[in-house]
Write a structure and sequence with these properties.
The protein has 167 residues and is α+β, with helices and mostly antiparallel strands. The protein is 32% helix and 30% strand. The chain is built from five helices and nine strands. It has a four-stranded antiparallel beta sheet, with helices on both faces. A hairpin with a 3-residue loop joins strand 8 and strand 9. The longest helix is centred in the N-terminal third of the chain and has 16 residues. The radius of gyration is 15 Å and the shape is globular.
Length: 167
């Protein structure tokens, strides 16, 4: 069974493994926690994820964001971030949803299904009439995933496509 589950303390071991094995920046998906120590993950990073989803302890200029891990049975295969609302910078950049699939799980449909599930969750959270996303022009597979989930290209620049999914 494939499902999204919010970052939580009970799944810390699997969450830690996924986060530390995800590159710091790949195809536009950033992971500042890549390579962190287990102690930092347990004491700072994971509690920070949980607090941020509740709007607690968010640095100035940031918005509440919920980290959802994509599970296939008992293993994590991806991570989806849903920002609860947008600042001007996010509206003109990363958007509401960011996601990454573990290297060994790519090309197996996880991104398409995970984004479908994330969009369903996003409609429960965000106030806007459209979900904003972005994708590197160097990542055509991710653009196909977004289009498969109802996205259209709103605009583009030299490096990114900026897509939207209507309610």
């Amino acid at each position: 069974m494939i499902y999204l589950k919010e970052a939580n303390l009970e799944d810390m071991e699997q969450e830690y493994e996924f986060i530390t094995n995800t590159p710091a920046d790949e195809n536009g998906f950033t992971n500042r926690e890549s390579g962190c120590s287990k102690e930092d993950f347990a004491q700072k990073i994971l509690p920070g994820y949980i607090s941020a989803s509740q709007g607690i302890g968010i640095p100035e200029g940031y918005v509440p964001q919920t980290q959802f891990f994509l599970w296939d049975g008992d293993k994590i295969v991806g991570l989806f971030r849903i920002r609860h609302y947008l600042t001007e910078a996010l509206a003109n950049g990363a958007g509401h949803i960011g996601y990454g699939i573990g290297r060994e799980y790519r090309g197996k449909g996880y991104a398409s299904l995970g984004l479908k599930l994330a969009v369903e969750k996003a409609w429960e959270i965000i106030p806007e009439d459209e979900i904003y996303l972005s994708v590197s022009k160097k990542n055509p597979a991710s653009l196909r995933v977004q289009m498969k989930n109802g996205a259209y290209i709103h605009h583009e620049d030299e490096e990114e496509f900026y897509t939207r999914i209507r309610r």
